[in-house]
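Dear colleague,

As promised, here are the two records you asked about, laid out in our usual form so they can be pasted straight into your sheet.

NAME FIELD: protein one
SEQUENCE, THEN STRUCTURE:
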Amino acid sequence: MAYIDTFTGFNILAVVGLMLVIGVVLRAKIKVLQNFLIPAAIIGGAIGFILVNTGVIPFEPKQFVNFSMHAFIISFMSLCLTNKAADEPETDKKEYLRGSLWMSFIWAGSCGLQAVVGGLLLVAYNKVTGSSFSEMFGYIATHGFTQGPGQGLAYGKMWANLGGSADLPIVGLIYANVGFIFAFIIGVPLARFFIKQGKNANQKANIEQEYLVGILQDKSGSSMGHEKTHPANIDTLAFQLSILFICYGITFLYMKYALVHLKGLPVVGVLSSWGLFFFHGLVVATLVRLFINKIGLGHMLSVRLQKHITGAAVDVLLVASFMSVSFQVLVSYLGPIIVISIGILAATFFYIWFFGRKLSHLGPERMIAQLGCCTGATGNGLLLLRILDPDYSTGVSLELAFFNIAILFTAAVPMFVIAPNVPNMGFLSIIGYYALYTLFCFGVVWYFGSQKDTAISTGKTSAPSIPAEQ
């Protein structure tokens, strides 16, 4: 029996792979999926959710939870290992910084806004229905919607270990999955509305057939990356994965040490939690990348290949997160999930719409990108942005690259100060802290949105859709 158990992990990966292929085929064949640009991972994940919960696939949802968690960590660490492309275009630095910071504070404000709305709606739901759900089921929504399935799961597990409900991780995943679907159902029509009104900067915007179907024609494929090692010695992919796995191992050893020896320290102690493994992982990956660059071996890290590793991890994460959801848990919390999801998604949409319209330059592009980021992930933002800006000529895609780094600082308060302490704080304190931080972000976003534009030409910020190698 023990021998058979060794196959379990690979069989789960086989199921995830099967769902991805099914998603690719359905996207290529079904028009409505193409019209809303639903990614294959979401299509396959939704089908997998049904098959697992109806017993057609002989696995339990909880068996996919760990795959979601590790795929999330790997995607973050891989992102931090990705070097800057050598031929990345010059941009107007002031406008680039302004746009990046505007989006990062929009995202940070969304973290606080969604937590406040979720908490208040949960309390209101309890009063109206006579239920007694913990307010944490409202707060966890922000980690699912704004931060995605990985952090919805990570913070849910953290709160569960600190005395919260054991269902918090799954509910966090549910919110994330709802957010992914919302991002495309609302985001695609909104992007097409901007094009119809002529509000987008790139007037060449159109959606080609390959983009709709999701499969490239035989002659239009591009290279995944340059070979960095001789195949007679070691495969390039094996080498690149080895660096990633080393980073993972270093993070694991550090976490084991920190949980024993650093737990009592004021700031480090709060962050010393297995639930925040992803945060320590991205720090380690960043330091390793800087070290490799410092010793003159940065060219060994293939930019394109590392991006594909990140993308593969995200695809696995999406499928596994859908299949991690138990139908029983979904039904048990269906009422508050529906109420909170509708309230948060409406608040997020009008929040981004209100401040996005204040931008006189690249407002639609930044708005649509953040709608995807605040209800799913950066990948969603890039997909929606590509509808308005198919060849990424506006530079907003470059702003999103810096945005991924900036949010670690602009959203540090809700992510690493408030959230880890939620199980030990009272309702009014939590709502108060989140609300104050949200108002602060509103002020910063208003300031950046009111500044005069320093770049009106899209020519200076053109970027290739696939970054070149270093």
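NAME FIELD: protein two
SEQUENCE, THEN STRUCTURE:
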Amino acid sequence: MTSSTAAHPEASPLASRTQQPLLALLIRLHLYVGLLVGPFIFIAALSGLVYALTPQLEERLYAEQLFANSTGTPQPLARQIEVAQAHVGEAATLSAVRPAPESGTTTRVMFTSPELGESESRAVFIDPVTAEIRGDLLVYGTSGVLPLRTWLDQFHRSLLLGEPGRLYSELAASWLWVAALGGFALWIIRRRRASATVRSKGLRHWHATLGLCLLIGLLFFSATGLTWSRWAGGNIGVARAALGMSTPSVSTALNGEKAAPPGEHDHHTGMAMPAAQTRDPQSFDAVLNAARNAGIDAGKLEIVPATEPNRAWSVTEIDRSWPTQVDAVAIDPRSLMVTDRIDFASFPIAAKLTRWGIDAHMGSLFGLANQLLLAVTALGLATLVAFGYLMWWRRRAPVRRVGVLQALRALPPRALGTTVLVTLVFGICLPVLGVSLLLFLAIEALLDGLARSRPERLRQPG
């Protein structure tokens, strides 16, 4: 008996009345998460494992497009863009240019066209020295990922099922932290109860030990995965905006206009550029030089021309490794003056953490070390799920001992109220978790009803 128990003997029965049903609740919930959500977590872990290794695979698979053997003085961007435009024809619209980041690499000229899907672009790879076309590939998203990583990314996020499939990854991310913290709590409770001389070294021991080693990584996966999920990610974005912690973006508005999303400008004041000049290849070199003079010094950057007349161009650093370089400027292509800028150093701390978290989740923040850590964690998570199923299979007969509803009813009123309140908060903030939890409780209620009716049926005369 500890000194605190001796000083307050009345605390022992209360603690016992709380801990017993709480332990039963944790065990049952951990089992439900493992059995019902485990497959989704397992698929997300294995697909994430492969995704973490894609940079090296892409360098080999797309070596012809990404690298150039020529040496010498690069030709102007205007010449490289003209070659790419002649290759794709007039039906495609120039959307962005990524100059070759270093000697021996290619310039990427990106186009949009009506037949492409949402967030898709057509990238033409140009040797900056010879202006030779090195390749023509479909790339995806603002990061312009190549086809292999695009396929893996979409499989990891949605099982290639589109928007409905994103529920799978959000379900996995929503419950992963619950499973991790629940398992940690069970480990603490069981460790306190078991003597050091009688602790089991079986499968449960290895499952718990592996989970303990991976705990921080699992919580990180869950938190960063939720930031770009559909429902929970939307709530996180609203919360950040309300707290003034949203990621800032550079404004391309000119002539004193306020920035507005594309498509919300019905008219513009002042002298407007002709639409044909908003993407003039001859302007790219001048805009790039103006951005360099303004301090945009990363090797990897993207130039985005104005999408409509009377708008500024943007030049953004896209180097996501450490130290992060994502500064951006807006430049008036007529005067070459900087009209707006954002610097990563001035980002709110929440925006910085989000940027670093996402880049670390994707394996780009610390290079190869980041990738290896992701791969080890993902493989460990898949092993955890496999261990969990093996444990359940070995002792599947007594699978139903104390149910969730029974454990909740056994809690003291204050503990029950706290549990319900915390659950409601998380269920609202993480809607997929909340809805799936209601499903779990419905299953539990059905099993309760079947268990209560079975003895009555057995007593009825045949």
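A couple of things worth noting about protein two: The first strand starts at residue 93 and ends at 98. The radius of gyration is 28 Å.

Best,
R.
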